[in-house]
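Onboarding guide, step 5: your first structure request.
Type a short instruction followed by the sequence, for example:

Predict the 3D structure of this protein.
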Amino acid sequence: MSRLAICPGSFDPVTFGHLDIIERAAKVFDHVIVAVFHNDSKSPLFSVEERISLLQAATKHIENVSVDSHGGLLMDYAREKKAHVLVRGLRAVSDFEYELQITSMNRKLNEDVETFFVMTNNKYSFLSSSMVKEVARYKGNVSDLVPEAVDQALRDKFKHL
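The system replies with structure tokens like these:
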């Protein structure tokens, strides 16, 4: 049986912190689906289609990674894909409380799915998509925080501001 994991998130946009988690998960699992989810509590800068495209470009070097999207509950998606593992990244202790709540709810919805937490590389522990967007909005350099395609996409989004 193949070991399939889902790495869910909004990825608005994908950062090197996200890629660190995805690359490390790809070393452990036979296949990793990076699943773009729409979070109604957030106002995304990039459309789901744009996020998928940016993730595909950023992960093209990883053979056992695919990119997908879903608009509903993560546990429904996991059931649909017959996945029993989620991979979630943690940057700092502050992430843990939020992730604990999500994991507890997910477990209530589907106790057959386990969540594995991966600590991001320390050099990315401060990094968030929100922070990247804020810096890029004011023409700050984010080229060492995001893949080249994302850097260009951010510059394109904010060139008229």
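Each response can be followed by summary notes, for example: Residues 4-124 form a domain with the Rossmann fold fold (CATH 3.40.50.620).
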